[in-house]
């Protein structure tokens, strides 16, 4: 198989960018439609509408974290199965994952009529009935569409693992385009407000999986839709969960760390909190440059593990680490050299105090990009090579544990600057610690013989 599939024979640099481009476009198309969606809601509904969508954001993070183990674990196992030319195993993984997310998404969707209103009251508080109503309307349709949202996530990743990254990209672009068009129709044309925005997003979630379903139905993948059977049987289910668990830990740790930073900023006033909102918004966009690198590297590494070509796995790791290091230096330099210009570009004409606080925040917070990419890559490498414990440790250290330690020490000594540095220092310390540890035990983590699966 490795001699015929490009994943097993094409030059690593060319393969990386073949996957990196579609992954990045897919993620940026999603970001673009979120920005457009926000503009339309803001113009047509006002701040109450935007607040309702924003309040639902943490719920999305929790829901994504539930499915990430299924998506990442399944993608790695499918990649390994394809590398070993074990198409029967790839079919079993495909059936197991699809059945699992349909059950999970279906059960959550059925709760929508019961939980949408209580959930909205919890998120918005009991004092603001208009905001709670808008949040409930938004949550209802989002919950209803969860089976399709989950399917789009895992099928897109599986198609990408089967050497079709552009198909996954096209599904994301289609969903984003449909969302924007339906926003205009339902919000502007029919004045459906926040409920219309949620309906538009829900219908867009349906389009992505349908596109992927049609592609797979043509028989162009190594797993078959016509042969599909609902199944929760998979002999390697423990390995599946172990591989995917670091991604779950990453999401939970990351969201918890951000919440702690936000709470720490409260005593510094509304200007600091507003600056953090801008910095966080920009970092969410910029970090996609690095998550796309992880998404690009994973199928190449997984396939070549299954194909018993460990030298290509290590070559992929080396190149992707160098690429993300260079990219991180560039972004950190921008935050250090031109923070004022970036603040003006994204926040307009604000007070001098806000510009000063936000510029300082950007200079210090953007230092995290020096280590963010390599940390993503090392965690993904350890996931795919069967060392999930250290991968989980990386995600917990950078996202929560070291953030807590830095927040407990730095603000007392450096004031507000210490808060901005906490996330950056957590990322950098994590990279240093993990690099030193794995290099010291390089025979365990980087030797070719340790990457070969059992025959």
What is the count of distinct domains?
2
Number of helices: 19
Number of E strands: 0
**How would you state the average pLDDT, rounded?**
87
Distance between the termini: 15 Å
Shape: globular
Low-pLDDT stretches:
none
- What is the helix/strand order? HHHHHHHHHHHHHHHHHHH
What gyration radius follows from the Cα positions, in whole Å? Answer: 22 Å
Could you describe the largest sheet, including whether it forms a barrel? none
> What percent of residues are in strands?
under 5%
Instruction: Report helical residue fraction.
Output: over 70%
Class by SSE composition: mainly alpha
Describe the structure.
Helices cover 84% and strands 0% of the residues. It is an all-alpha fold and 455 residues long. The protein starts with 5 loop residues before the first helix and ends in a 10-residue tail after the last helix. It contains 19 helices and no strands. It is globular, with a radius of gyration of 22 Å. It has 2 domains: 6-235, no CATH class; 244-451, no CATH class. It has helices spanning 6-9, 12-44, 47-83, 87-110, 112-124, 129-144, 146-161, 165-189, 193-217, 237-265, 270-286, 288-306, 310-337, 339-347, 352-365, 369-384, 388-414, 416-440, 442-445.
């Amino acid at each position: 198989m490795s001699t015929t599939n490009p994943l097993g024979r094409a030059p690593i640099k060319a393969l990386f960018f073949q996957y990196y481009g579609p992954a990045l476009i897919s993620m940026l198309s999603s970001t673009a439609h979120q920005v457009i969606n926000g503009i339309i809601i803001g113009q047509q509904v006002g701040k109450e509408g935007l607040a309702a969508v924003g309040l639902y954001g943490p719920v999305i993070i929790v829901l994504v974290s539930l499915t990430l183990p299924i998506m990442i674990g399944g993608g790695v196992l499918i990649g390994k199965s394809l590398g070993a030319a074990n198409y029967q195993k790839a079919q079993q993984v495909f059936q197991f994952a699809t059945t699992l997310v349909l059950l999970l998404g279906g059960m959550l969707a059925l709760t929508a009529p019961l939980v949408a209103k209580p959930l909205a009251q919890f998120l918005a508080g009991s004092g603001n009935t208009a905001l709670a109503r808008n949040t409930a309307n938004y949550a209802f349709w989002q919950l209803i569409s969860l089976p399709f949202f989950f399917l789009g996530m895992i099928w897109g990743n599986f198609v990408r693992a089967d050497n079709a990254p552009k198909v996954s990209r096209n599904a994301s672009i289609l969903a984003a385009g449909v969302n924007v068009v339906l926003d205009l129709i339902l919000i502007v044309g029919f004045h459906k407000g926040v409920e219309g925005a949620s309906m538009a997003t829900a219908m867009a979630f349906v389009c992505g999986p349908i596109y992927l379903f049609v592609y797979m139905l043509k028989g162009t993948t190594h797993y078959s839709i016509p042969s599909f059977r609902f199944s929760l049987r998979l002999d390697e289910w423990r390995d599946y969960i172990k591989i995917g668990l670091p991604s779950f830990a990453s999401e939970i740790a990351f969201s918890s760390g951000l919440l702690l930073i936000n709470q720490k900023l409260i005593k510094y006033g509304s200007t600091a909190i507003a600056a953090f909102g801008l910095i966080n918004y920009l970092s969410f966009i910029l970090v996609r440059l690095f998550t796309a690198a992880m998404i690009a590297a994973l199928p190449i590494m997984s396939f070549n593990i299954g194909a018993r070509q460990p030298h290509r796995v290590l070559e992929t790791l080396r190149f992707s680490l160098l690429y993300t290091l260079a990219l991180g230096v560039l972004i950190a330099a921008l935050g250090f050299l031109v923070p004022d210009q970036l603040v003006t570009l994204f926040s307009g004409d604000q007070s001098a105090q806000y510009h000063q606080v936000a510029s300082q925040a950007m200079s210090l917070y953007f230092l995290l990009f020096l280590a963010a990419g390599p940390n993503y890559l090392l965690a993904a490498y350890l996931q795919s090579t069967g060392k999930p414990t250290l991968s989980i440790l990386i995600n917990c250290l950078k996202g929560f544990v070291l953030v807590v330690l830095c927040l407990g020490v730095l603000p007392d000594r450096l004031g507000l600057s210490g808060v901005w540095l906490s996330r950056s220092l957590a990322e950098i310390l994590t990279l240093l610690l993990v690099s030193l540890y794995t290099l010291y035990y390089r025979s365990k983590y980087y030797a070719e013989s340790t990457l070969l699966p059992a025959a």
